[in-house]
Automatic annotation (TrEMBL):
Pfam families: NYN, OST-HTH. This is HTH OST-type domain-containing protein. Residues 184-204 are annotated as: Disordered. InterPro entries: LOTUS-like, NYN, OST-HTH/LOTUS_dom.
Length: 364
């Protein structure tokens, strides 16, 4: 039932997040999409509020408005502290909502400021679950231990440090669509399917990536098995326009069975008839092939004393396999995929301080 979902109220200390992402990650304007996706995997976001002097964040204001975030104006005051005014207003509103909206089970407090630690403690005293979200470089060490769960923005799927955030991104399409790099043009002449069929194939691939990335997120946060009904609700929270009928399927279950036939996921009997458990295949054949591809590419690129960096490596894999996506195998980021290969002893990864990135090599 829908009422089983967590009901989340989101409060953003926007100036703290935006400046932290700009200075610490080189991301500007702030990309709200990864935050929305992370919370969609955890429950229904029933309130979204962001606090700032919006005259300083004109472009951000338009992007947040498209994401259905309520903008709370904290104007610049002569002789006063704008920051303290925003902090106090946000804390007062959060406590007021905790008392006035008893159905809210979870508060997402997006800030790295330790001044909000007392607010977190008070919300937990009121039997509310608290999720903190902040940029790692600008998050106080006091704040994460106070929360039930803390998410570093830097580690969320879709955040690309050192690159501008995607501007004007529409939430009507799933984030994973933007993660797919275009394949290299095929040599001519090659017989291409009709345009309508090409569009259908692209939409089918987008749906598979949306479903697998959502399933991977749910499996990390769920206490038990992920049922098809719960997966469908999480998918709709990420992309409210999702409709399996547009892909030619009569129901979500039929789409899942189609993906099972392609060995993308696996279905098992659930607690209720017609609501199966959804998981990733356990035989590991496809993920083993993906790891083998990674090892082969790293071995090809590495030279004595010059191992290839992690950045750009995904594009190299796609030159060999254009439809490659780590999300197909249950990994939300390419870094997680590479670390899984390291855990299996397939590659070595070392952090290079000079270049500020991981260098990979195939062990002898």
């Amino acid at each position: 039932m829908i009422n089983d979902d967590e009901r989340i109220a989101l409060f953003l200390d926007y100036e703290n997040l935006a400046i932290g992402a700009r200075d610490g990650l080189g991301v500007a304007p702030f990309d709200f999409g990864p935050v929305a996706d992370a919370l969609a995997e955890r429950g229904r976001v029933v309130a979204r509020r962001a606090y700032a002097d919006w005259s300083s964040f004109d472009e951000d204001r338009r992007l947040l408005a498209r994401a259905q975030v309520e903008l709370i104006e904290i104007p610049q005051r002569v002789g006063g502290s704008r920051k303290n005014a925003a902090d106090i207003k946000m804390a007062v509103d959060a406590i007021e909502m905790a008392f006035a909206r008893g159905f809210i089970t979870t508060f997402a407090i997006c800030t790295g400021d330790s001044d909000f630690t007392p607010l977190v403690h008070k919300l937990r005293e009121l039997d509310k679950r608290v999720i903190g979200i902040g940029v790692q470089s600008s998050t106080s060490a006091l704040l994460p231990p106070a929360c039930d769960e803390f998410l570093f923005y830097d580690r969320l799927p879709g955040v690309e440090p050192g690159q501008p955030a995607r501007r004007g991104r529409s939430r009507s399409r799933p984030q994973v669509v933007l993660d797919v790099a275009p394949a290299e043009p095929a040599p001519q002449p090659v017989e291409q399917p009709p345009p309508a069929e090409q569009a259908t194939q692209a939409e089918d691939g987008d749906a598979a990536q949306l479903i697998t990335s959502t399933l991977a997120g749910l499996q990390r946060h769920a206490d038990g098995p992920v049922l098809a009904s719960r997966l469908k609700r999480a998918v709709l929270r990420k992309d409210p326009t999702f409709d399996e009928a547009e892909l030619g399927f009569r129901g979500f279950g039929e789409l899942l069975r189609h993906l099972e036939s392609q060995h993308v996921l696996e279905l098992r009997a659930g607690s209720a008839q017609g609501d199966p458990e959804v998981t990733f295949p356990e035989d590991g054949t496809e993920v083993d092939d993906a790891f083998a591809l990674l090892v082969d590419v790293v071995r090809q690129l590495q030279a004595p004393g010059s191992p290839p960096p992690l950045s750009g490596l995904k594009d190299q894999l796609r030159k060999r396999q254009p439809d490659f996506s780590e999300k197909r195998y249950g990994f939300n980021t390419f870094l997680s995929f590479a670390k899984a290969a390291r855990a299996r002893g397939l590659i070595d990864m070392t952090w290079d301080v000079a270049s500020s990135e991981y260098l990979l090599r195939v062990p002898d």
